[in-house]
Amino acid sequence: MHDITFYSVLKDIAQGIRNKSNLTDTDENKIKPIDFGDRILLLASETFAPNMVDVNGQGISNVHTLIINGSITDGKIEKDAFRNIKVVDLELGEGVKSVGDSAFYQCEQLTAVSFPNTLERIETNSFALCSNLKSIAIPASVNYIGIAFTNCSKLESIEVSPENPKYKADGNALIEKNGTFDVYDMEQGKLVASAGEKIVVGCKNSTIPYYIKCLGDSCFYGISITNISLNEGLLSIGTNALRGTNIEVLSIPSSVTTIGTQAFAKCIFQKIEIPDNVIYIGNYLFQGCGNLTEVTYSRKLKSVPPNTFRDCIKLRTIIFYDDSDLAEIGTDAFYACSALTELIFPQGITSIGSAFTGCTGMLKYDFTKLTAVPTLSSSTAFTGANDNMRIVVPDNLYDSWIDETNWTTYKSRIIKASEYTES
């Protein structure tokens, strides 16, 4: 493995590299050669993005220490510049101002990175999937951090300079002091911007400070955290916030109103209660939660959004309260929930999408509390149904139910409540 330092070289080296790389004369001003012993690299793009190739056009690998000084590309490390390279230690020298999107994406051997006091921006995915990265220390100069450290599963230490005006570290988490985030506004019927202390990056040893208002988008995405205690006062859990974590038990505080798309996707907990103050959840919320067996649903949620429980193969019980505001079941909401055997719907259901494909274990859809026939948007809503599956409806609605659009496809499975017996 090699240690690499970027520095300026003479134009005759540039000419040699240009010849070997078969670049045309028009490309002459687009390359900057790098010489570090037995390797020669090109910085070749419109913006001098460092594309890690040698003189034969082969990708660079097996680099132990990569040192990048700020004289390159006006202090900018461009998008995808060092994507997938095999580097263990990374040192960004003084003068480096920004790290571009996916610049060090999936550098799986990277364990340590040093940021300079000149750094201002760390863009989205810049260190995503650096699965062996263990610690980060953010200098005072940084004023923007995107969703940069997702799937850094072994991250265990986060520090921030106390002189940084925008960010701080507390509870081994990176916190934006006055971050913006979405909360759902009932009166406006949409997500609106709010502000407060927001966790931007968490690690496997994080604890949540009492004053946090938001778990930011993807803040723990793919982090190997096993225990977490969410604080009362928390308002919002962002998109992908806890996706792919190893949290075994999760309690959502009653203060939470808004939960983003895939916030809990591919988690391993077995039971979850969505508190009644939760009035908005995004799509795919529990997608692929392979251990999830039981869910208690918020009374104030008006829908089960598309793909909410998709591929929850062990889900056996979902509790909808009788006085629930639930009105709509979205497309593929229960896709491949093969362990479900019964669903009891609250009386307010008015619309059902193609929601139950692959629910092969389902024996009873209980609609006996309804006072009107709900709209069924697709004749394939129950594709793959068990041969013994029945749709149980109020006696007084039976005749209209079996003739309703798309329901008529399942006429042979629809049965009056008074005639249904457990098989």
Account of the 3D structure:
This protein has 423 residues and is mainly beta. It is built from two helices and 30 strands. The longest helix is centred in the first third of the chain and has 10 residues. The protein is elongated. The N and C termini lie far apart (67 Å).
Task: Please summarize what this structure is.
With 423 residues, the chain is mainly beta.
Largest sheet: 7 strands, mixed
**Computed CA radius of gyration, to the nearest angstrom:** 27 Å
Helical residues, percent: under 10%
Q: Tell me, rounded to a whole number, the average pLDDT.
A: 87
Strand fraction: 25-35%
Give the spatial strand order of the biggest sheet: 13-14-15-16-17-18-20
Q: Distance between the terminal alpha carbons, to the nearest Å?
A: 67 Å
Q: What class, by secondary structure content?
A: mainly beta
Basic shape: elongated
Would you count the extended β strands for me?
Answer: 30
What features would you highlight for this structure?
4-stranded parallel β-sheet; 4% helix; mainly beta; disordered N terminus; 30 strands; 7-stranded mixed β-sheet; 423 residues; 2 helices
Strand and helix layout:
Blueprint: E1 2-5, H1 11-20, E2 31-35, E3 40-44, E4 63-68, E5 76-77, E6 87-92, E7 98-99, E8 112-114, E9 121-122, E10 135-138, E11 144-145, E12 157-160, E13 167-170, E14 173-185, E15 190-201, E16 214-215, E17 236-237, E18 258-259, E19 271-273, E20 280-281, E21 294-296, E22 303-304, E23 317-319, E24 328-329, E25 342-344, E26 351-352, E27 364-366, E28 375-376, E29 390-393, H2 398-403, E30 414-416
